[in-house]
Write a structure and sequence with these properties.
Elements (H helix, E strand, L loop, with lengths): L1 E4 L4 H8 L7 E3 L17 H16 L3 E10 L6 E2 L12 H11 L7 E12 L2 E13 L15 E3 L11 H7 L1 H14 L1
Helix pairs in contact: 4-5
């Protein structure tokens, strides 16, 4: 089975491809000639994932899945949430996003947070969603060189290393995207 993952993010593509069994081939948007930015105008993570999957199905005709991920911080009432990628501005600057978040949490005792990924699958003209959540907390400084996004400041619950310090295989076992992808795979193999 071949299915399109509606992303141009090479890190996300690599992370998901590492989870998928050999019988399922995941290809990115470049493989279908989609180079435009797909609109993400929903007020929810679920809405953005659904919007992207629907866009590919309607404009390119492929069965596909799309994801959206947000970092939800308790002390910030769930922010940055759906705005995680552009938290510090439309440039989607990862370092600026992390700096803004660390600054806003500077005087906060509660540093609890969760990563939430929602995958929307558009297959056989039916839309299905899968959600993965990873509980954790925000560190006081960046640690690690692996991963992407907020990984250097996210400490998964029960771990002593940030996502950016963990090998990809370990991150995929406990992480939000890994959990959502495993649900997707179960569905595809059913």
């Amino acid at each position: 089975m071949k299915i399109v993952f509606a992303t141009n993010n090479a890190n996300k593509l690599k992370e998901v491809q590492a989870l998928v069994p050999q019988g399922i081939q995941i290809i990115g948007l470049a493989s279908i000639g989609c180079t435009e930015d797909i609109p993400e105008t929903s007020a929810t993570i679920e809405g953005n994932a659904t919007q992207k999957a629907t866009y590919i199905k309607e404009n390119y005709g492929y069965d596909c899945f799309a994801d959206d991920t947000g970092l939800e911080v308790d002390a910030l009432n769930g922010d940055p949430g759906v705005y995680s990628a552009r938290y510090a501005g439309e440039e989607k600057d990862t370092n600026a996003n992390m700096s803004k978040l660390l600054s806003e949490l500077k005087d906060k005792k509660n540093r609890n947070a969760q990563f939430k990924t929602v995958i929307a699958l558009y297959k056989d003209n039916k839309l299905t969603t899968f959600t993965g959540i990873c509980l954790g907390s925000i560190t006081k400084e960046k640690k690690g060189e692996k991963g992407f996004g907020y990984d250097p400041i996210f400490l998964p619950k029960g771990q002593s290393k940030t996502f950016a310090e963990l090998p990809l295989e370990e991150k995929n076992k406990i992480g939000h995207r890994g959990k959502a992808v495993r649900l997707l795979i179960e569905h595809l193999e059913a």
